[in-house]
Structure formats: C-alpha cells, structure tokens
Amino acid sequence: MYKRLTLGLAVALVATSLKTSLSSSSSSAASSSAASSISSSSISSSSSSSSSVTLDYDNDRFEGIYVKNLPCCKSKFKDQLEQSLKIWKDNNRSGVWLKIPVDKIDLTSVAIDNGFTLHSCEKDYLMLTKWLPNSPSTIPNQPHNLVGVGCICYDKKNRKLLVVKEKNGAISDVFKIPTGAVDPSEDLSHATERELLEETGIKGKFKGIILIRHAHGFLNNKSDLFFMCVVEPLSTDIQMCENELIACEWIDIEDYLKQQWFNGKPLNEKMNDEIKKAIDAIENNTLDKNIMKEHILENGWRPGTSSIFSFQK
Question: Active-site positions?
C-alpha cells in the first residue's frame, strides 16, 4: 500500500511539472498537442480501470469459483465482489471459495455482508464460501478430523515394549505407547517414525497398522482418527524429550498390561488386546499376516502418489 501511494504521488508531481512546462511554452500548437496527449492518456487509464469490474478467479472442476488476487481497497473489493456475484449467478455457477489473507482480513466483513459464511482457517488466511444456486449447498464441510498415530515399538531381542509417561494429559501418570499428531501433508508411516524419534530418540521402521480408532468430541469438538502402528526399533538407546515426557522406558509387556488405570475401560482394554496380539505375532514371526501394510501407488488420474493400507502383500 505504501509503495502504491508513493508511486501515485510521484505521478502527480510529474503531471504537475508537465502542466507548468506546457503553460509557460510560447507555442500554442505544442501546448494543444500536449493537452491532447494528456487527455488521451486519461481516457486510456479510465478504460483500463473500468475493464477490471470483476474479481480475478479460477474455475474449479465442480462448476465453482475460486477467487484469487484480492484488491487491497475495501470499497473496490465491495464493488467487484457484488458485480462478480451477479455475473456468476447469471452464468449458473455453484460454490464460491474466497480465500482472504491475514493482511487483507478487513475484507471479511464485506464478504459476510454479501452472504459469505466462515468455512475454515489456517495461520495465514481465512476461507469463506457462498453457495449460489437455489438448492441445498454441496460445499464440503470444514476439516473436522484430527489424525494421530500410536507407536508399538517392541524390542524382540530383549522382549521389552517402549513406553512413555507424558507431562500433561488425561493419563499423565500412566505408561502408554508413544503417540502424536500427523502433520499436514505427512504420510502416516513418516509421522509414526518421526513421533517415535522426537519423543524417545529411538529410530524405527514403520511396519504397518494393526488398529484404527475413530472417536468424536475431541479438541475444539473435532473428531479424531487414531492409527495404532507397529514400528521395528533400529536402536535401543533412549533420548527422552524432556519437554513432553516425564519418563521413557523399555518394560515387560505384562507390566504394561497390568496397570490399574486400564481396568474397567473397554476401549483401552480392547486396544491393549491388540497390542498383545501384535507382540505375539512379532514373537512368532507372523506379523506380516496380521498387519495392514503400506502400499504407495501412482494416482494415475492426477500427479503424485497415494498410500493405501491393506492385508494384501
């Protein structure tokens, strides 16, 4: 904005200087020619400005609109938005996605006044949407599931399970397997290995998934998807993350399972049963038959790859 104001001031000064110079000229023909040139330039500028009456946007594959390159001026945004909405509705477009950067957050009130609703947000932007047809909206809801992983890291040689006690949380005084959240655009396998290393200092190799838990009413009333994974330890020397944990140990599976906190809690008892089954499979060299393995495949219909998990080899 400052650069634009500075540029505008510079143009105004140049125009004033040019006008003064023309006024002092003894040649009326030259003065007339210069005035004509200035008038032509003004008309061209006005035409260019009036041609930009709608917002810049891309089409999505669902006959929707994805707005981009928002103006800084609130009044200009209001005019362009109202004109754009009229045109898009006349052209039978569906949903409109309006991504407002943090540095233009004052435009939000204009959008809401024109029927947009809050959809989601990240650290650097706010997303709003508007459904144009006279029918129920099919715009997807905001992201509503947290994604987490748990690490079953069993040292077969010493017959020990890696467990931690967290500084905070509902069960901070109980040994549990290392857990953590999956980062945006992160594969489950990578998240499992990363969380294990960050919390315990143990390097591991992702083997697969043995259990999936889906629950509701978690942080900010979001749902939660939790993947319990088996990770083969590639090291055994613990380097505990003291910012998150108060304890990190290799213990006997029996000592883990007999903790009183788990008693009378059907969910935790079932999860512990699955942990015990996974450890038995590791001991009997049958884990490959009892675990969902990761398969990374080319998408084909769009660039990149996807991971699927199945019992198929």
Answer: 198
